[in-house]
Amino acid sequence: MEGARLSVVIVNYNVKHFLEQALLSVRRASSRLPVEVFVVDNNSVDDSVAMVRNKFPEVKLIANRHNAGFSAANNQAIRLAQGEYVLLLNPDTVVEEDTFEKCLRFMDEHPEAGSLGVKMIDGAGVFLPESKRGFPAPLVAFFKAFGFSRLFPRSRVFNHYHLGYLDRDQTHEVEVLSGAFMWLRKSVLDQVGLLDETFFMYGEDIDLSYRIVQGGYKNYYFAATTIIHYKGESTKKGSLNYVRTFYQAMIIFAQKHFSGEKMRLFVTMIRMAIYFRALLALANAWSKKIALPLLDAGLMVGGLYFVKNFWATQYYNDPHYFEPALYYFNIPLYTAVWLCALFFSGAYDPPFRLRRLVGGLMWGTLFLAAIYGFLPLDYRPSRAVILLGAIWAVLSTVSLRYILHFIRYRNFDLGREREKNLVIVGQKEESQRVRYLLHQVQVRRNIIGVVAPMETEDWETYLSPISRLEEVVYIYKVDEIIFCSRDISSQEIMAWMTRLGPQLEYKIVPDDSMSIIGSSSKNSPGELYTVDIHFHIATPMARRNKRVLDFLMGMVLLLTYPMICWPVERKGNFLLNCIRVLTGKRSWVGYASGGGTAQTLPSLRKGVLNPASGLRYPIQDEPTQQRLDFFYAKDYRPFDDLDIIWRGFRFLGNK
Q: DSSP string covering 171-236, please?
């Protein structure tokens, strides 16, 4: 756009619903300003490109055929930008209606400013500390990496990384801004250069902020306006991938801008931090996964010892009746079988279901009873030990879950998902549309009612005007609020989120959208209530069952190979496929289509066969293959794999 004062650049990758909301907020914020908007799509497969073309014809769309990375994609648009200023904006953000006007005014009044960042809150209304940061000098990075900044959040020494000692509600000169919202003077970019494409993810904003300061300009944190940034610094800050990627970016920064002993010290400290944080991430992940099974195992072992002593004394009148094998063989065996049965029954998968727990223990007990007769005589104690142990296992594990649930929630509604109390803020027409969307996606909520976005006395339609929203939340014990963005401004939404606090969940329904968008914290990916398909193959139990089936079929086929291989084509490759499946490199059944739709479905290992294998009429066209993949993922059951393997048996030697 010729004469544009601002060029907004948004890089998108498979976040269509968030992008739609971001562009709607940008459209409103641009209504009184000459603004051009670029969307650079990094080869998304979620119809983001079609959505932008249909709903936002004013946007200049660059549709890449590959994922160019964040820095390179931004640079594509910056080179075409005509604005006096360039704004790098994440697609998972919402800006206030006057954000652009305020930022433009500030930059015009401060010619020494090279870039500007704003106050950011997450989807729960919590301030994001990455809104303002300091340069990661060796000591600063050390305190950040080893947790001192979290222990002393307001310390000038220990939390210089997030500048915790600076008032978040005051405008300050700072060192580093976030790439989620980075307002840049185009003339400064021309002088210091564009984003460094060496940084694929993370670190490019630190590098650019550093070069702007080195060029003689200032970076400002501007507190007079606020944006929502749903995903915060990372969607999975505790993951090993985040640790590796983030700290590797720090190493690249150090090698680029430091030299000599300072650079070596920085890199050494960062490498130490990588191992330290990776160890913490692994410990955290494993502790969450194994804590409950370990507690269950302790209860089972303790219970079996008690049952053994009780039965030996009361029934046999001999405390030493049982052989020593019971201690080192039977008790560990029973415990292991019951734990495996719980695991495969889904007893450790959220949400908790009592039937999974009891059913798993019953199946485990039946398995123990079935193999009992095959054990040597020395390893066959009384069957009563198995039966009484199973009863104890059920009672103790159920009781444990009730206790843990009570400690956390102060109630005994175990296994019952209490419907959250929901209030809609919007006018009658939009609130009815929200109810329809919730019904369509089968989201169970106890809808308390509607709060009017203006003063009203229509008590039949509305609970209250928005000025009394805090009272409504308190009186009705509201858990979740959905704001209709057509009826209430982004600025007012953010103000209420901050005022009511993070104990509530907040979502926004964009105007003329089929999605309701929100996030409960900066560390979780945004949540969507959208008219999308739920794929059964994405559930933990379905994935686990598929992997178990793969392994068992691999063992059976490998052991019976001499007897069953005659109908199989490419017999040598058949053996190789058995090894690949057993080692987890392949699955017996995967998707038929290699790209396109398959990329939008839950990921699977490459399959030896696919839903089209062995059909009487061979499938040649891609659309039919994609539809078969879609229904396979949507309605998956383990018997589907068995049917496909039986039908396509002669193709088990496929490459």
A: -EEESB--TTEEEEEHHHHHHH-S--TT-SSSSHHHHHHHHHHHTT-EEEEEEEEEEEETTTT-S-
Angle between helices 331-345 and 354-372 (to 10 degrees): 140
Least confident stretch, 80-89, 158-167, 193-202, 422-431: 193-202
pLDDT of residue 581: 93
Domain 420-528: what homologous superfamily? Answer: NAD(P)-binding Rossmann-like Domain (3.40.50.720)
Residues in CB range of 286: below 8 A, 6 or more apart: none
Measured in degrees and rounded to the nearest 5, phi and psi for residue 255 equal -65, -25
CATH 3.90.550.10 fits 6-132+168-233, yes or no: yes
Kindly report, residue by residue over 319-363, the tens digit of the pLDDT: 888 888 888 899 999 999 999 999 989 899 887 888 999 999 999
Q: What is the pLDDT of residue 424?
A: 95
Three-state SS string across 543-558, please?
HHHHHHHHHHHHHHHH
Specify whether the CB–CB gap between 76 and 42 falls below 8 A: no
Domains of the chain by residue range: 6-132+168-233, 295-409, 420-528, 536-651
Instruction: Map tokens 């029934």 to a residue.
Output: 315
Burial string for 380-392 (b: 16+ CB within 10 Å, else e) reads ebbeebbebbbeb
User: Minimum mean pLDDT among 153-162, 287-296, 384-393: which range?
Assistant: 153-162
CB neighbours of residue 410 within 10 Å: 7
Helices 240-257 and 260-314, interaxial angle, to 10°? 160
> In whole angstroms, what separates CA 191 from the centre of its chain?
38
Q: What is the pLDDT of residues 222-233, one digit of tens each?
A: 999 999 998 743
How far is 439 from 437, CA to CA, in rounded Å? Answer: 5
Task: Write down the residue that tokens 């998304």 correspond to.
Answer: 44
**Tokens 């609020």 belong to which residue?**
481
Compute the distance between CA of residue 380 and CA of residue 366 in angstroms, rounded to an integer: 15
Say whether 16 sits in a helix, a strand or coil.
Answer: helix
Burial class (CB in 10 A: 0-12, 13-18, 19+), 652: buried
Instruction: Let me know if the fold of 6-132+168-233 is the same as that of 420-528.
Output: no
Please state the pTM of the whole predicted model.
Answer: 0.73
The closest of 577, 584, 586 to 558, measured between CA atoms, is 577
Structure tokens at 181: 């919202």
Q: In the prediction, which pLDDT does 367 show?
A: 92
Distances (CA, A) of 135 to 209, 211, 257, 508: 9, 11, 11, 35
